[in-house]
Write a structure and sequence with these properties.
18% helix, globular, alpha+beta, 41% strand
Amino acid sequence: MDAAKNIAHDIQQGMESDGDQFLTFMLAGEEYGVDILRVQEIKGWDSVTPIPNTPDYIRGVINLRGTIVPIVDLRRRFHLEAVEYGPMTVVIVLRVEDPNTGNSRVMGLVVDAVSDVYNVPEESIKPAPDFGSVVDVDFVKGLATLENAMVIVLDIDRLLNASEMAVVERVAK
């Protein structure tokens, strides 16, 4: 959890950037990245208020300083094996934009652990392979090779697409 606190502190202080920066996190042993400019804060896992009749990957909502924030379990969203939340489990609070309306909303993602912050020039992000219609990779912005690791860079706006936004709008009302 110390790494998460250090990264959260750096984000709040506004880190220097010489390229696109991504916050990376772990999920089922794989490293994923999201645009750091979308990250508002990183919180340790805490209980949520469940909302009936929502998809199973929406764990519920939290009240974050007066803002109702829906919490999405990314393992469930990706149909990965469920695990018990532990001391490394964090919620990454992000600003998500609806590309159709231009509206934005704050949402939280439950992930296994935060990893690091990387500078990744746009030209080093390679397109995701095409799996045809079998696997939906619309939310994968690309793949970046960093040192010895492959990072799956997510397009957070596509990942939390219009259907999630519609559910979120209903929850927030």
